[in-house]
């Protein structure tokens, strides 16, 4: 038995390495401000992941047979219809949702499109319930749709551990549920923060919401690529999830659609939010009859067939390795990243970094003390070819709360004017985010670059200026992307060849 387990581990390691090494764009090189050329270290996966090579290869084989779905008249349509149906089933399998009770449908605009659809549908389905409970951690995509569709949205704060922010405060969720009772339509929370990578206890939240007779909606945009999801089949059914939304561009499939996985009963009995071709059984000049079949009723118009198949390709590949294995490997990497950055005196990491108190995966945000986040990000790109993101990551309230918490450390040491100046510097953060293609050497490159920036602040400051937009730009080095890639140039070359 021990040998079998060892062999399985070796096989998973080999499969993961094969996926990692086939990633599109992993070896991209750029010429830097120093004049040298370096391979890019891609640490912006929370914004959009790179494409896995398996997607490129599978889609290259599929595209000659591409046809529209919803007909079985010709061969291409038969093939595409079958694969598109498989793509739906693959999503249900990936999130462990019972197909008897759940359905999956594809939407445009990624997770944002999905959550907007969810909010509009549940408002119509349960019009008497006009309160939504969410958290301060949420991406705007899991905040603004609820504000747009409901009278009141309550933002639950996070737990404070040793002066650092942790996951969502369950006690405060329960107090809100007690206070608003039957007026609560649902609790909407992120599975993993797109700012800090903190993992929320979504199954505990589901059990709590169900105990008070309401629903739970999970924004899995940042969760799906890193942590296993189990929507149904828990020993205690109260821990099952009602609705989950995710997006392919966050899980190694650029240009793929968003997905909503929901209990069928929550979308039954009302007219679909979007209407058009493919979602009706019959149409007359004075009336039409929406189909009751899932997922057809929720996918009006021609869907992103190729994108759905591409996403399902990734989900199947990840499932072959197992998300538990991937989760374990990535948790090791994020712990290593935190350990390395914590060794740098002038680097401040946001959110609780104690792994015994808070689980983290996928991302971490930081600042160099007394250094503007935009300048740090620009230097990492221009001098080290390390791709990160900076600012507030479409999570303004959460970032604002963490920055305010940071300033409390200096309250007794600095004057009001100095505190205001520090707050201006840190109205955003730098985020390094990881995918399954990242390894320890990527973390080492980031840590080495940050040490260099901290040690040579004067050099970098004199080489940059700040534009009115707030971003920093190098005084002499300019990046021109046209020689590297231009659609017009490529089309012209194609016709000339």
Observed structural traits:
497 residues, alpha/beta, Aspartate Aminotransferase, domain 1, Aspartate Aminotransferase, domain 2, 4-stranded antiparallel beta sheet, 16 helices, 21 strands, 40% helix, globular
Contiguous low-pLDDT stretches (5 residues minimum) are none
Beta-strand level of the residues, as a percent range?
15-25%
Q: Major sheet: size, sense and barrel closure?
A: 7 strands, mixed
Shape: globular
Rounded radius of gyration (Å): 24 Å
CATH superfamily of the largest domain: Type I PLP-dependent aspartate aminotransferase-like (Major domain)
Number of domains: 2
Record field, number of beta strands: 21
Q: Indicate the CATH class of the largest domain.
A: Alpha Beta
Strand order of the largest sheet: 4-12-11-10-9-5-6
- Here the CATH topology of the largest domain equals Aspartate Aminotransferase, domain 2
Question: Do you know the CATH architecture of the largest domain?
Answer: 3-Layer(aba) Sandwich
Tally of helical segments: 16
Mean pLDDT: 92
């Amino acid at each position: 038995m021990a040998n079998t387990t060892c062999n399985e581990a070796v096989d998973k390691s080999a499969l993961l390495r094969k996926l990692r090494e086939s990633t599109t764009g992993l070896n991209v090189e750029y010429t830097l401000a120093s004049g040298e050329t370096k391979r890019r270290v891609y640490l912006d996966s929370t914004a959009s992941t790179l494409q896995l090579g398996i997607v490129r290869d599978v889609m290259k084989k599929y595209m000659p047979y591409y046809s529209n779905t919803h007909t079985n008249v010709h061969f291409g349509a038969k093939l595409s219809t079958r694969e598109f149906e498989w793509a739906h089933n693959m999503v249900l399998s990936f999130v462990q949702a019972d197909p008897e009770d759940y359905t999956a449908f594809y939407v445009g605009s990624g997770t944002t499109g999905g959550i907007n659809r969810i909010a509009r549908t549940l408002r119509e389905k349960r019009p008497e319930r006009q309160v939504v409970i969410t958290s301060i951690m949420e991406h705007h995509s899991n905040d603004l749709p609820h504000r747009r569709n409901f009278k009141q949205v309550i933002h639950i704060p996070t737990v404070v551990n040793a002066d650092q922010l942790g996951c969502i405060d369950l006690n405060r969720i329960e107090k809100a549920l007690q206070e608003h009772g039957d007026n609560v339509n649902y609790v909407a929370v992120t599975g993993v923060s797109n700012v800090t990578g903190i993992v929320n206890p979504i199954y505990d939240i589901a059990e709590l919401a169900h105990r008070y007779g309401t629903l739970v909606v999970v924004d899995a945009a940042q969760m799906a690529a890193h942590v296993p999801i189990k929507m149904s089949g828990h020993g205690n059914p109260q821990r099952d999830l009602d609705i989950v939304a995710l997006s392919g561009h966050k899980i190694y499939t650029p240009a793929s659609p968003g997905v909503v996985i929901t209990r069928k009963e929550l979308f039954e009995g009302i007219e679909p939010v979007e209407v058009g071709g493919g979602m009706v059984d019959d149409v007359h000049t004075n009336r039409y009859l929406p189909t009751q079949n899932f997922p057809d009723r929720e996918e009006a118009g021609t869907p992103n067939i190729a994108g759905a198949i591409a996403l399902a390709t990734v989900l199947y590949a990840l499932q072959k390795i197992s998300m538990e294995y991937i989760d374990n490997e990535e948790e090791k990497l994020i712990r290593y990243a935190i350990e390395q950055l914590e060794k740098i005196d002038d680097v401040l990491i946001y959110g609780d970094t104690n792994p015994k108190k808070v689980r983290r995966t996928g991302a971490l945000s930081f600042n160099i003390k007394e250094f503007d986040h935009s300048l740090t990000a620009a230097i990492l790109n221009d001098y080290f070819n390390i791709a990160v993101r900076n600012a507030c990551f479409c999570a303004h309230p959460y970032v604002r709360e963490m920055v305010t918490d940071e300033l409390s450390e200096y309250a007794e040491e600095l004057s009001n004017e100095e505190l205001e100046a520090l707050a201006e510097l840190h109205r955003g953060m730098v985020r390094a985010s990881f995918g399954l293609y990242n390894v320890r050497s990527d973390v080492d490159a980031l840590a080495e670059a940050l040490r260099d920036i901290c040690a040579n602040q004067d050099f970098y400051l004199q080489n940059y200026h700040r534009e009115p937009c707030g971003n920093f730009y190098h005084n002499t080095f300019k990046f021109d992307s046209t020689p590297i890639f231009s659609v017009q140039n490529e089309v012209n070359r194609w016709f000339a060849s």
